[in-house]
Amino acid sequence: MQFDTSDPYALEPGVDWAVVSVPYAACYGEPGYESAVLTHYRRGAVLQVQGQQTVVLSKEEEKSELWYAFDEGWMPKSSLQIFSNKLRAEKAAKTILSQ
Q1: With a cut of 50, which residues of the chain have pLDDT below it?
Q2: What element of type H or E holds 53?
Q3: Are 75 and 61 in contact (CB under 8 A)?
Q4: What is the pLDDT of residues 20-36, one digit of tens each?
Q5: Whole-number CA gyration radius for the chain
Q6: For residue 22, which of 10, 33, 79, 92 sits 20 to 30 Å off, Cα-Cα?
């Protein structure tokens, strides 16, 4: 068995990967829908997670949403599937794209 060593973080413990699960997802400059949209991603895009933050949507209703940071900006959890390594994320992306 041979492993692809071109991406040292592909199997690194503690490094999460995201797959865009909606047809078209906006990537924001800051966590929250009020921020400027920096770019967009299509369903099946695989991205390395750089961080996460919980954003309070409504203090009165005690609603919050988890947002994930990427090199290009922030996206809400509702647009993503999160995986513990890149290989799983790539496999999921292939499944998502074949549906």
Answers
A1: 1
A2: strand 51-58
A3: no
A4: 999 999 999 999 999 99
A5: 14
A6: 10
